[in-house]
C-alpha cells in the first residue's frame, strides 16, 4: 500500500492547446531536484507510475470517483470514453411539455435529467411530477425542486436503482389512462417502456440525447490505460467504447469495475471474465467494487509463482 501521506497531483496528458486533454493522471509526482552548472536548480521528472484505475465517465464527471479512490491511495487515470450529444428529439421536448399533460416524467440518469431540465425551462417550467432512477439522478433536481417545488416534484424512486424496478413499481392512479413521458438516450433499451406498457401505462418516448465515443485518445494515454489493472465504466456505451479502443490489443484480460448490474451484465455478455459490480448501483458501491478488483489484482501479483 502506498504511503498514506503522499500528496496527489494532476498532470495533463494533453492534446496540443487549445484542445482539451484526452487523459489526466492522478497520482504522486515522480521527480527530483538537481543542481545545474551555475548552481541553478533544475527539475528532473521521471515518468509517472502506472495508474491503478482508469476513470472513463464523460469529461467533468469523474471527480467524485477519483476523490473517493484517492482516500484509499488508489491512483486514477481520467480517460473519458464517451460524450453526450443532442438526440433526434431534443428540439421536440419543449413543445411536447407545453402541449400535453403527463402523469409521470421518467428520468433514468443524470444526463437525462440535465437535458430534461433544459427543455422544461424552455417550455416555461410547466408543472410536472418526476420519477427518477438512482440518487445521483435525483440530486440533479435538488436545486430546482427546492426553488420551485410547486412546478417540479420528484415524487418516486424505485426500491432498486434499475429501470426494470421502476417499470414494475411506478404507481398509477385510478384513471383509465396513465400517461408517461420518457426522455431517454437514443441507445437506451426498451425495457422501461415495454414494462410500463404491459401494466397499462401510455408511454411517449423521446430520444433527447445520445452518446458517441471519444476519438482523440493519444497513444501515451492509451498505453497507460491498458497498463492499469482496473477500468471503471458507468454505462454499456462506455464499455463498448473501451472494447473498441483496445480492439487491436492482444490478450487484454484486466478487470472491469461497473457502476451497477446493468453495465455488469453487459460486460459479461460481451465476453469479459473479470467483472465487478455492486448489488446496488451508486458511487459508494462502485468504489467498493473497484477496491475489490484492485485487491484481487495485487494478491495475484504478489502470490508466489509455481
UniProtKB/TrEMBL annotation:
<feature type="domain" description="Tetrapyrrole biosynthesis uroporphyrinogen III synthase">
    <location>
        <begin position="64"/>
        <end position="288"/>
    </location>
</feature>
<dbReference type="InterPro" id="IPR003754">
    <property type="entry name" value="4pyrrol_synth_uPrphyn_synth"/>
</dbReference>
<dbReference type="GO" id="GO:0006782">
    <property type="term" value="P:protoporphyrinogen IX biosynthetic process"/>
</dbReference>
<keyword id="KW-0627">Porphyrin biosynthesis</keyword>
<dbReference type="Pfam" id="PF02602">
    <property type="entry name" value="HEM4"/>
</dbReference>
<dbReference type="GO" id="GO:0006780">
    <property type="term" value="P:uroporphyrinogen III biosynthetic process"/>
</dbReference>
<comment type="similarity">
    <text>Belongs to the uroporphyrinogen-III synthase family.</text>
</comment>
<keyword id="KW-0456">Lyase</keyword>
<protein>
    <recommendedName>
        <fullName>Uroporphyrinogen-III synthase</fullName>
        <ecNumber>4.2.1.75</ecNumber>
    </recommendedName>
</protein>
<comment type="pathway">
    <text>Porphyrin-containing compound metabolism; protoporphyrin-IX biosynthesis; coproporphyrinogen-III from 5-aminolevulinate: step 3/4.</text>
</comment>
<comment type="function">
    <text>Catalyzes cyclization of the linear tetrapyrrole, hydroxymethylbilane, to the macrocyclic uroporphyrinogen III.</text>
</comment>
<dbReference type="GO" id="GO:0004852">
    <property type="term" value="F:uroporphyrinogen-III synthase activity"/>
</dbReference>
<feature type="region of interest" description="Disordered">
    <location>
        <begin position="9"/>
        <end position="30"/>
    </location>
</feature>
<dbReference type="InterPro" id="IPR036108">
    <property type="entry name" value="4pyrrol_syn_uPrphyn_synt_sf"/>
</dbReference>
<dbReference type="InterPro" id="IPR039793">
    <property type="entry name" value="UROS/Hem4"/>
</dbReference>
Amino acid at each position: 500500500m502506498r504511503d498514506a501521506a503522499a500528496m496527489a497531483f494532476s498532470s495533463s496528458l494533453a492534446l496540443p492547446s487549445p484542445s482539451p486533454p484526452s487523459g489526466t493522471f492522478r497520482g504522486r509526482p515522480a521527480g527530483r531536484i538537481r543542481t545545474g552548472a551555475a548552481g541553478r536548480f533544475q527539475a528532473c521528472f521521471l515518468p509517472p507510475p502506472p495508474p491503478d484505475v482508469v476513470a472513463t465517465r464523460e469529461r467533468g464527471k469523474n471527480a467524485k470517483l477519483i476523490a473517493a479512490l484517492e482516500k484509499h491511495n488508489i491512483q486514477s487515470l481520467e480517460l473519458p470514453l464517451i460524450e453526450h450529444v443532442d438526440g433526434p428529439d431534443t428540439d421536440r421536448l419543449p413543445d411536447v411539455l407545453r402541449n400535453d399533460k403527463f402523469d409521470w416524467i421518467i428520468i433514468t440518469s443524470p444526463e437525462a435529467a440535465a437535458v430534461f431540465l433544459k427543455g422544461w425551462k424552455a417550455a416555461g417550467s410547466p408543472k410536472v411530477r418526476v420519477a427518477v432512477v438512482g440518487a445521483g439522478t435525483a440530486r440533479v433536481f435538488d436545486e430546482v425542486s427546492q426553488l420551485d417545488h410547486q412546478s417540479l416534484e420528484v415524487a418516486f424512486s424505485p426500491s432498486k436503482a434499475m429501470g426494470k424496478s421502476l417499470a414494475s413499481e411506478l404507481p398509477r392512479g385510478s384513471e383509465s389512462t396513465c400517461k408517461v413521458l420518457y426522455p431517454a438516450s437514443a441507445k437506451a433499451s426498451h425495457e422501461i417502456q415495454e414494462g410500463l406498457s404491459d401494466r397499462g401505462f401510455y408511454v411517449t418516448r423521446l430520444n433527447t440525447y445520445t452518446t458517441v465515443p471519444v476519438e482523440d485518445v493519444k497513444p501515451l494515454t492509451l498505453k497507460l490505460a491498458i497498463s492499469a489493472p482496473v477500468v471503471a465504466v458507468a454505462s454499456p456505451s462506455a464499455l463498448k467504447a473501451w472494447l473498441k479502443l483496445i480492439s487491436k490489443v492482444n490478450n487484454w484480460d484486466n478487470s472491469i469495475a461497473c457502476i451497477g448490474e446493468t453495465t455488469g451484465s453487459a460486460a459479461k455478455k460481451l465476453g469479459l471474465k473479470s467483472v465487478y459490480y455492486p448489488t446496488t448501483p451508486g458511487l459508494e458501491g462502485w468504489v467498493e467494487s473497484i477496491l475489490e478488483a484492485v485487491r484481487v489484482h495485487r494478491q495475484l501479483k504478489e502470490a508466489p509463482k509455481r
